[in-house]
Amino acid sequence: RHQQTYGQRALRQANPTAKLLLETIERKKSNLAVSVDVTKSKDFLSIIEVVGPFVCLIKTHIDIIEDFEPSLIEQLQDLSKKHDFVIFEDRKFADIGNTVSLQYSGGVYKIASWSHITNAHPVPGPSVIQGLSSVGLPLGRGLLLLAEMSTKGTLARDSYTEDAVRMARSHRNFVIGFIAQRRMGGIGLVDEGADSVADEDFLILTPGVGLDVAGDAMGQQYRSPRQVIFDSGCDVIIVGRGIYGNDLSLVDVIAARAERYMAEGWAAYMERVGSNH
Ligand code: UP6
């Protein structure tokens, strides 16, 4: 199990975004990320306003917003400053280097200009990292590789997952960690014995977290914050529908749910690091 504190780990990160996320977690005593998967700007902003105080990170799918305008990004950035959270656009890039560099920097959303973190499927091989890094590294951004998924029947397992760790290892300046269901890298999955490997410290952000139901009708599978943070040694719980629910007008209920997940995630972390804190 990973017994160092978030604060201790922040000190050793070379990537500025990895450092920022760990410092934010420590400062706010929250390892909760909320995934705001709603389709109207008004709901998007009002949910972020109420959960903001309880999160280290807000995860977006900016391309599902049906009334998107560039001013939405300014409002998101204002909320990020006001409530002190990191922004993660869950774009899941998966194309050749040249294409992903254009998708990341340009188009309607210009993701690289505002999202501290984004992610990519390792399926194209190292070129996907090279393409994204050419845009993101000069901006101090960080990339997560999808080493595993939360869904039933995922193909991201076994040697695919291990190769994702090896790919990350060759791009340590830009790849800050993984979307995965358990700790990997360093002492853990794919420990190849070298000192540099034992020292490496990838961040593990984990979706598929819910306290009240086991899954949805489309293959999603949920585990509890304790299973994710304590049993599996992950760093951040990512919660969507478990927090914003299906009535977006119930802002007090949404805030209370965020507070509950934050408390459970932090308690599981305190149990994991024990007297180190
Ligand atoms: N997500 C997963 N599983 C993965 C990777 N990403 O659920 O392996 C993303 C989804 C969604 C969020 O795209 O935005 O995490 C989970 O939402 P939920 O909590 O409402 O199920």
SSE layout:
Layout: H1 6-11, H2 16-28, E1 32-35, H3 41-51, E2 57-60, H4 70-83, E3 86-93, H5 97-105, E4 117-120, H6 127-136, E5 142-146, H7 159-169, E6 175-179, H8 195-199, E7 203-206, H9 225-231, E8 236-239, H10 241-244, H11 251-273
Helix pairs in contact: 3-4, 3-11, 5-6, 9-11
The structure holds 6-AZA uridine 5'-monophosphate.
6-AZA uridine 5'-monophosphate (UP6) binds next to strand 8 and helix 10.
Provide a descriptive summary of the structure in words.
The chain has eleven helices and eight strands. It has 277 residues and is α/β, with parallel strands linked by helices. α3 crosses α11 (251-273), α5 (97-105) runs parallel beside α6 (127-136) and α9 runs parallel beside α11. Bound molecules: 6-AZA uridine 5'-monophosphate (UP6). 6-AZA uridine 5'-monophosphate (UP6) is lined by residues 35, 37, 61, 90, 149-150, 179, 207-208, 220, 238-242.
Principal-axes geometry comes out as globular
What is the strand tally?
A: 8
Radius of gyration: 17 Å
Query: Which range best describes the helical content: under 10%, 10-25%, 25-40%, 40-55%, 55-70% or over 70%?
Result: 40-55%
What small molecules are bound in this structure? Answer: 6-AZA uridine 5'-monophosphate
Strand coverage percent: 5-15%
Concise summary:
The protein is 41% helix and 14% strand.
Which keywords apply here?
single chain; 277 residues; alpha/beta; 8 strands; 41% helix; binds 6-AZA uridine 5'-monophosphate; decarboxylase; Aldolase_TIM
